[in-house]
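Backbone geometry tokens:
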Amino acid sequence: MNHRSVLRLLALVLVFALLGSATAQDPVQVLFWDQVYGNETQEAAMAQMIANFEEANPDIDIVLETLNTDVMRDIVKPSMEAGEGPDIIYYDAGPAYAGILANAGLLLPLDEAYAANNWDERLIPISREWTTFGGHVYGVGHELEAQGLYWNKRIFAEEELELPATFAELIELCGTLRERGYEAPMAVGWGDPHAFPLLHNWYNILANYVPAETVAAMISGEHPFSDPEVVASIELVTTDMVDAGCYHDDAYAIGFLDGNNMHYSGESPLMLMSTWAMGFFTDEVTDEFGFMILPPIEGRPQGMIHLMGSAWFIAADTEHPEETLRFLDYLVSPETIQLWLDAGTLPAQAGVDYSPYEMRPVYRDFTNLVATWDGPLAYHLDVLTPANWNTYAVDTMGEIPAGRLTAQEFAEQLDVEMQKAVEEGRHADITG
């Protein structure tokens, strides 16, 4: 073999070696922190989405880590600051949560990604609105939700009951159900030990008791929570509904999920809760349920709380922004809609005709309601209020029905907590 042939052979060996090295290259790993709620259906849907994405994108390996919400809130900021956080995270939107990460420079601005992926057209407006901080958008919203009233259709048929048309009729219905042997006409438990389920019930009442513009001013630190009208709305849920027997007598000893399970299992005919809870209507829950906005309180406007459950955010220091954005765009693509519906989640995609999709009747009630609602939209406070305000509210509201705190005292301390946040620049100004 001559010298030229040897060189040619060596060149071919080098080419094949390089090609072999390229084809053997490991896929890029994208670390994804997801919230887990103990819902096997939702977890299975996410696992299927990841499998579908990886099959279509063999150069990307999604490493999923699921964390309890409270744990995630505790560790996400220090983990990101230490450079040990995820590439992408599913986290609470709003200034008290993702806003803190964005203001600390820990999240990747997505202004260019919104334009490149046409997300403003593909997603409903609050996806951007709820994840914008300091003039930049940082997240893609998910889990379109509302607050409302669930009812068990079987129980209502067997008991020959009519749906309440007003809030007064709902209170009267609690007494009727008590007389017929239901220990908890309305499912809820606030013994986690936090009282956030009770707090969410108050949000429902507030949306139908105080005008939305007043609530917006409260969130912005421009109007007191100790307003007599607001205090009256607190008393409705923590005193009037308790005295009417709407809740279980031992609600203090019942955790959030156990409280909700009373509705899924047929022990409680009613549940006042977010549509987030629809994710727990699994195949094992054989009864059918309906969903409606809380009946109006006499003489006051009926508002629908319209919110995002959470949103996806990308870490500012991710080493794989292109691959992570590709995964995020897939999560809000039409290919995932049926899987999200299977998981009991309504994606925040705009202009979707849901009629061909399979879903439980209770979920179709919600999609039809969202599509046809032309009344006022109301606010869900905990994603728009500061962290210290939330901590006080969830830790303390349960003290009111226990008789250890008055609604007035509770509201006055809410003002104190909001003022602290205003002075430190940690509140959300949504009025201007």
Notes: The longest helix spans residues 3-23. The two ends are 82 Å apart (CA to CA).
